[in-house]
Specification:
Elements: H1 14-26, H2 30-38, E1 58-65, E2 71-79, E3 92-97, E4 103-105, E5 107-113, H3 117-120, E6 122-132, E7 142-152, H4 161-168, E8 174-178, E9 184-188, E10 195-200, E11 205-213, E12 215-216, E13 234-242, E14 247-255, E15 274-276, E16 279-284, E17 287-291, E18 302-304, E19 307-313, E20 322-324, E21 329-338, H5 342-349, E22 356-357, H6 393-413, H7 452-457, H8 460-475, E23 495-497, E24 502-504, E25 508-509, E26 511-512, H9 527-535, H10 542-546, H11 557-570, H12 573-589, H13 606-615, H14 625-640, H15 644-664, E27 675-676, E28 685-689, H16 690-708, H17 713-730, E29 736-737, E30 742-743, E31 746-751, H18 774-784, H19 788-797, H20 805-810, H21 817-831
Antiparallel strand pairs: 1-7, 1-22, 2-6, 3-4, 3-7, 5-6, 8-9, 8-16, 9-12, 10-11, 11-13, 13-14, 14-21, 15-20, 16-19, 17-21, 18-19, 23-24, 25-26, 27-28, 28-31, 29-30
Helix pairs in contact: 6-8, 8-11, 11-12, 11-14, 12-14, 13-15, 14-16, 15-17, 16-17, 16-18, 17-18, 18-19, 18-21
């Protein structure tokens, strides 16, 4: 995509770009912006490769609030140039300058990947090193550590003897529960009898994901009338060991969503809703389990023989049981530590050792960061982030602390606050975020960007806010389906080769719809469910919990925004896997295959859209926010995955989407969206909505940046052309109101029968969209270099002239900065010294 402002020009072009930026910063009238744009409209080449070229140079800098510990394992994420990591020689590219000036060799792990991962490698990495707090520094003081370009040979990891003993002793750390008949079910959190995967490896931290279904320990025969189930919940344990630390991080995902894909093994057969008494983690005495939040559902620990038992979901009063619906899941973030280091464990549990890369200069140019246009790798859109100097770091930190404390207070108390998003009380293990309706109307949490203030302010509270949001949204997102090895079930698992074509024999939209049931949900055993009902042991909260519906596809970013923050700012493995799982659910919901052996298609699926476009090409089609957030979720997963096989399958899907957008776009008015809805103009027209168009804009930008850039020039060109036509359509007289100073929120684009409207629309809504559309104007200018988009941005912002766009944007309140971020970043690059 042509981005002379934000993305990697070749080194030979940098001086010209710099001169133009200096010119633009000096202008005070539109004429100078026009002159700038006239000379800037050439395509950028691939970003420069590798590191600085000068060994020992400063490439980045991390900032954090000083923890109480004087020595700690610093970690943070950093965007990098192509070819930086992994290196062909196998060396680790970075070190960290400690507080005393010593150069400490670092561990480097991949976070996300370039489109051409096999050649370019990771585009964001995590850097880890043991450092010291500066002498005399008090807890909470802002401290910084530089990232140095010093390639070195990696060394191996060795856990402490105490930690090693946990891993070599089977059953040392288990999770257990009991069913309605008293049968006990157990999974070993450090063994992974169903799957083991190494996620991080290096000198300072090793992380392994273990997966195991909780199996009964009873010898009683399975099944009715009163035997145990084949399994209770499935458990992923993300276990990190740390150099020199007598502690392990223990992040958990507990779920009731299995696929039944292995017909020969009943362990992955779906269960009905699961009833259990309490969920316990059993650890050796002398070890303490430290949660990131001791929520109101946390039980009182007790001693049992040579172990300590921690109820992480306590029993319900009155001999009632807890319940876990089908496809439900929840998280817990814990640290298991020797009792003597419980204070350090609390720091690890609450991410107090996490640093955040910051903007800055090394004397010869900007260091690598989210704000450097040559390393702009944040989120699937890979766009530079705005700075908030104009608000001040104190104000930013205060804002983020308030948001975090509000969530923390709710988890600790478990009582309804009577308003969004804390309507619910604590429901056993669940703290559902938001309203019960998965398609709640309004723009709350519908963000094109998130975590941008957290990143700039280097805020632990902001990061923790995203962790808690992720946890609570996940509590009300019962959509997961895992195969028996703990990997997400995939669309490809369920493809059937018919006599004439492949098809997927089910109707699926986040969850299974009525019709064929290849998973076996409809034949799950019910004898324990019936026993609970007959004994009157269902929890009081069950009906309330079941009334919370998953966030639907049209509003999917409400769930997705928080795990994306955790991945890009923290390389969080649990969040990564959640995104990969959700991507498969989205692909099962929106794919290019028939949904029946007779060729029938589900109306909400891609196959239906393809058929519509084949019958009526070039007039627009029923695409909008649902398709946009589906693309966003798939792009996030594509960023995370380094599996050639998975990327290959996903690439086929993206190719189909790109082709659909090209063929479906209106050749008359330039819009993609052609929606029939009774909510706009009493259903008299097909319409285009500005908010959903902005979401589609970002989705296509993300496809270019995440999937096709540097890999498939033809697809890049195709999508750029689609974007150009839609960008110009948005500011045309058909859609832009000079009275409202913005894109009209909804316009009629076609009659219910007949040709589309081309030059004008017979029906406009009474308002303009000034919530979602800001960043589309930035993307449009970066792609076209046409100053008309800066003019429109100035009009929307209430700026008297284009050069006052920055002033107008920075004068706005904190509200909606998540959707203005792209435009604010562009304005800062153009006009901020």
């Amino acid at each position: 995509m042509k981005r002379p402002v934000f993305h990697g020009a070749s080194p030979a072009r940098r001086p010209a770009v710099g001169r133009r930026l200096l010119l633009v910063r000096s202008i005070r009238a539109l004429l100078f912006v026009l002159a700038f744009c006239a000379g800037a409209g050439t395509a950028t080449s691939q970003a420069p490769r590798g590191t600085s070229g000068a060994t020992g140079g400063v490439l980045g800098e991390f900032e954090l609030a000083a923890p109480a510990s004087t020595t700690f394992v610093l970690r943070g994420t950093l965007p990098v140039m192509p070819g930086t990591f992994p290196r062909a020689d196998g060396k680790v590219p970075f070190s960290v300058r400690d507080a005393n000036g010593a150069i400490v060799p670092a561990q480097v792990d991949a976070v996300t990947h370039f489109p051409n991962d096999a050649v370019d490698g990771a585009d964001v990495v995590e850097i880890t090193a043991i450092v010291h707090r500066p002498t005399g520094t008090t807890t909470g003081t802002r401290i910084k550590y530089q990232v140095i370009d010093t390639p070195h040979t990696p060394t191996t990891f060795s856990p402490t003897a105490s930690v090693q003993a946990l891993f070599t002793t089977p059953g040392s750390v288990v999770i257990r529960t009991r069913d309605v008949f008293g049968h006990t079910y157990v999974a070993d959190l450090l063994r992974g009898n169903d799957d083991v995967r190494l996620l991080r490896s290096g000198e300072y931290r090793e992380q392994t994901r273990f997966y195991e279904a909780m199996r009964p320990i009873s010898s009683t025969a399975y099944g009715p009338p009163s035997g145990p189930l084949r399994r209770m919940m499935g458990v992923h344990s993300y276990v990190s060991t740390w150099a020199g630390e007598d502690l392990i991080s223990l992040d958990l995902r507990v779920h009731n969503g299995t696929s039944g894909h292995d017909a020969a093994d009943p362990i992955d057969d779906p269960q009905a809703k699961l009833y259990f008494d309490q969920l316990e983690i059993v650890v050796p005495q002398g070890w303490t389990l430290v949660p990131d939040v001791q929520d109101v559902g946390w039980g009182t620990p007790f001693t049992q023989g040579a172990t300590t038992v921690y109820p992480i979901v306590k029993a319900q009063p009155g001999n009632k049981l807890n319940v876990m619906p089908v496809q439900a899941q929840f998280h817990r973030r814990l640290v298991l530590a020797k009792t003597a280091v419980a204070a350090r464990a609390a720091e690890v549990a609450t991410e107090q050792w996490l640093g955040f890369c910051q903007p800055g200069s090394n004397g010869s140019g900007p260091i690598w960061s989210w704000w450097n246009r040559f390393t702009a790798r944040y989120w699937p859109q890979r766009h530079a982030l705005p700075r908030f100097d104009f608000k001040g770091k104190t104000a930013a930190l205060g804002k983020l602390k308030s948001e975090y404390q509000s969530e923390l207070d709710w988890l600790i108390k478990g009582t309804s606050k009577g308003g969004y998003p804390f309507y619910s009380t604590q429901l056993g293990w669940a703290y559902p975020f938001g309203s019960k309706y998965g398609g709640m109307t309004g723009g709350s949490d519908i963000y094109l960007y998130d975590g941008v203030v957290t990143a700039w302010a280097a805020s632990n509270d902001g990061y923790r806010h995203s962790q808690l949001s992720h946890r609570m949204y996940t509590d009300r997102q019962p959509v997961v389906i895992y195969d028996k090895n703990g990997e997400p079930t995939t669309l490809d698992d369920w493809l059937v080769q018919g006599s004439q074509f492949e098809y997927v024999n089910m109707q699926f939209y986040l969850t299974l719809l009525p019709g064929p049931d290849p998973f076996g949900f409809n034949v799950a055993p019910l004898y324990q469910v019936n026993a609970v009902a007959s004994q009157g042991r269902a929890p009081a909260y069950e009906a309330e919990l079941l009334s919370y519906k998953p966030i639907d596809v049209q509003h999917h970013v409400r769930w997705l925004r928080s795990p994306k923050v955790l991945v890009w700012l923290g390389n969080d493995a649990l969040a990564k896997d959640d995104i990969l799982m959700e991507a498969e659910i989205l692909r099962l919901s929106y794919h290019e295959y028939p949904s029946a052996p007779n060729g029938g298609v589900i109306p909400s699926g891609m196959a239906s859209d393809i058929h519509s476009v084949e019958v009526n090409p070039g007039v627009g089609f029923a695409c909008g926010r649902g398709e946009a957030w589906t693309i966003d979720g798939m792009c996030a997963a594509y960023s995370i995955s380094s599996s050639p096989a998975w990327r290959g399958r996903a690439r086929d899907w993206f190719d189909s989407v790109a082709q659909l957008m090209r063929q479906g776009q209106s050749s008359c008015n330039g819009f993609l969206m052609r929606l029939k809805t009774s909510k706009d103009f009493a259903g008299q027209f097909f319409v285009r909505r500005a908010t959903e168009t902005a979401m589609l804009d970002q989705a296509l930008v993300s496809m270019i940046e995440t999937v096709f850039k540097g890999v498939d020039p033809m697809r890049v060109g195709t999508l750029e052309n689609v974007l150009k036509r839609q960008f110009y359509a948005e500011i045309s007289p058909m859609a832009w109101s000079s009275v409202l100073d913005g894109p009209v929120s909804s316009i009629a684009i076609a009659p219910l029968s007949g040709a589309p409207f081309c030059g004008s629309s017979p029906a406009w809504a009474a308002d303009a969209d000034k919530f979602q559309s800001w960043t589309s104007l930035a993307y449009a200018f970066e792609l076209t270099n046409d100053p008309i988009f800066l003019q429109r941005a100035a009009e929307m912002s209430g700026a008297s002239t284009v050069p006052n766009l920055l002033i107008a944007q920075q004068a706005m309140s904190w509200g909606n900065h998540e959707n203005r971020a792209g435009l604010l970043a562009l304005a800062q690059l153009l006009w901020m010294p």
